[in-house]
Specification:
heterodimer; A: alpha+beta; 2 domains; 6-stranded mixed barrel; 13 helices; 10 strands; elongated; B: alpha/beta; Rossmann fold; 6-stranded mixed sheet; 4-stranded antiparallel sheet; 34% helix
Amino acid sequence: MSLPELLRLALSRLRTNRLRAALTMLGVIIGVASVVALVGVGQGTTSNITTALSSLGTNLLTISPTSTSSDGSTTLTLDDAEAIAALPGVADVAPEVSTSQNVTAGGETTTTTIIGTTSAYPIVRAYRVWQGSALTDVAVDHGLRVAVLGKTTADDLKLSASDIGSQIRIGGIDFTLAGILQPKGGAGFQNPDDQVLVPVSTVQKYFVGGDSVRTIGVSVATAGEMATTNARISALLRQRHDLAATADDDFQVFDQTQLLAAASTITGTLTLLLGGIASISLVVGGIGIMNIMLVSVRERTREIGIRKAIGARGSDILAQFLVEALTLSLLGGLLGVALGLGISALIARVAGWTFAFTPTTLAAAVISSLLVGVVFGVWPARQAARLDPIAALRYE
Amino acid sequence: MSAPLIALERVSRVYRMGEVEVPALDDVSLDIGTGEFVAIVGPSGSGKSTMMNILGCLDRPTHGAYHLAGSAVAELDDDALARLRSRTIGFVFQSYNLLPRTSALDNVATPLLYQGVGRGERMRRARAALERLGLGDRVSHEPSELSGGQQQRVAIARALVTEPALVLADEPTGNLDSHAGAEVMAVLRDLHDQGRTVVLITHDTDVAASADRQIHLRDGRVAA
């Protein structure tokens, strides 16, 4: 029998028992929908985290000291930053000194992080200027009292574009508002838009003494040079800090790409786990199909006997019942995919993610529903095909 | 005379019930020629049903040889038996055995489905067969919407649609009142008149009397 004939038989059979067909399909629908939705959630999380991490800066190496002495000074210095800038493979270097201060503008006051840095900071940390200008080399060289505000800080202080050039007070000292940064959007523990950038020399003059820095951000020229540049920086710093060959590093170099790799491993495992849990319900749906097909073979024993008497071969009967099971599981699979996409789109909207799905997932969901049909449909179909026509005809 | 359509040569069918062997058919030999109208008559327990199963290629003899239209049935596997049934035999059963919740037209067309006949051709031939049996206005009715006599006529249409060499009718009037029964017998008589071989299996001697030749079965053997 040809496939269209088998499909016509299966569909007309399912039509005569719609409620049963619908309930049987529901098992597969729920199974496939939960696989699609949960894998969608997993992939949404992955792309969300990846976006968040790459917004921190591309090809970013962050160098920080491993210990801070009691007076707040560290082993990393501005001179270290300058030496690193001269290394091959290094595109930009932004040392950072930070302090927490009250910032006042007009009647508004807020407490936020003041970062003393250089003109390279927006490049290294992937910020863009929204209004006004970034820190200039001139301001950094002369320790000018200028400030560039994160968007959140500016909003807190009710400062907008028209206030560029006006005076604000940081820790009781007058600064000129030079610019406002474009917001990155919050992800992670710290709001990247709640901070104030001032020249590093200014911070050292007014707030933090000494020459030490909290971190040094390094932007590497190309992604391929991350590892070698990392090694060069380590070697340079060990030499500059006069560390013996056996001594531990007094600094650590943190590679952005390693974090990305770790994060994607974690979210990949999470996605697999969610998908695995959801596939259990798909298997349960398959058992539902097998159950109903076995009942159906029993109920239709006489029909099978009739069909065999009037010329059906065992393989015709096998094909008829198998195609029935496959029709149930495939229809269930397609409806499940639609439902699953709907659910993950809804979750993505509620959680504010980008709605992520891959055609591979959908194809896998449909194929696994077909597999479920084959695996759980074959046995009942074989039972049907093996019935003895004489006994089947006599069956009441 | 050419080779008979049906040739049974010392056929036995033995059922094993635990340790005991029960011969339902015991050393039966008979020939039925093309175009004959034969009744196989016997009381219950005479081996009628076993005879019907053997003749209908639903079962194989334990011993002996059965040739149907030149094929040695005992040597065929299940698929070959199914093909032989499909091409050679049209069944009419006591309880009609129509497919439930399936229109008369689809019921009659089903044997052609297993012969691999295309849908259009199937429907055309099934409709023609139903019209021949006076059911042209009942094609879309399901079995539950038809009277017993009508159902049996649908079953006969289904038996005829493949133009089989042999029509095998197992107690075709057993579930019908005398009027409908007479109608069905008239149809079978008619088929015979058109040259088809009809084998009727019954316990009812009155019904058997309408056949041209009677074969009496008793205790699994052919009585004289």
